[in-house]
Specification:
This protein is mainly beta. It is built from one helix and eleven strands, in the order βββββββββαββ. A hairpin with a 6-residue loop joins strand 4 and strand 5.
Length: 133
Amino acid sequence: EVQLQASGGGLVQAGGSLRLSCATSGFRFDDYAIGWFRQAPGQTREGVLCISGTDDITYYTDSVKGRFAIHSDNAENTVYLQISTLKPEDTAVYYCAADPQPCWGSPWYDASIYKRYAAVDHWGKGTLVTVSS
């Protein structure tokens, strides 16, 4: 059974940092891309960024460039999302997802741009990040 478990969310002051984790099991980690999405209150889910392998990274939103970083630990089958200089507008539930297509593949863009979330094979439950001003 494929499982993705996001964790590490919490309440943080603006300007602070967090590291989110996406622990995975039930599939061959090396064969999948892992992406992060977020859903702010009252908004649709948006793609944030994604990693294929260890260093093929795709950003789906420009607003996080320079503040969000993604890292894959193949030994732990875990992907980390390091968030720095948090802003109130980063408040959202953060989800991780997995698909065998690379991050520049159609399932990821279908989900990120066209909101066709079912295009990505597997989703985990989210973790809430709240940024106070």
